[in-house]
UniProtKB/TrEMBL annotation:
Residues 2-50 form the RNA polymerase sigma factor 70 region 4 type domain. It comes from Intestinimonas massiliensis (ex Afouda et al. 2020). One of its GO terms (biological process) is DNA-templated transcription initiation. This is Sigma-70 region 4 domain-containing protein. GO terms for molecular function: DNA binding; sigma factor activity.
Length: 66
């Protein structure tokens, strides 16, 4: 969770809403006044950034579902 909190707001918000609170992309889009496509793009980029941070911390790709 610390890694997510340390991310830029653009990605942190959508990742927290999707991965932690399990909101749908549609609900996130409404909440943040974004299109569903913009939410999907931010999730994709945020997950890639999170994966890189995890790898820097010494965790491999397997087992994270990212």
């Amino acid at each position: 969770m610390e890694l997510i909190r340390s991310m830029p707001d653009t990605y942190r918000e959508v990742l927290e809403l999707r991965c932690v609170l399990e909101w749908s992309n549609k609900d996130i889009a409404r909440r943040l006044s974004l299109s569903e496509n913009a939410v999907a793009v931010r999730l994709m980029r945020g997950k890639a950034l999170l994966q890189n941070k995890l790898e820097q911390e010494g965790y491999g790709r397997e087992g994270f579902g990212i």
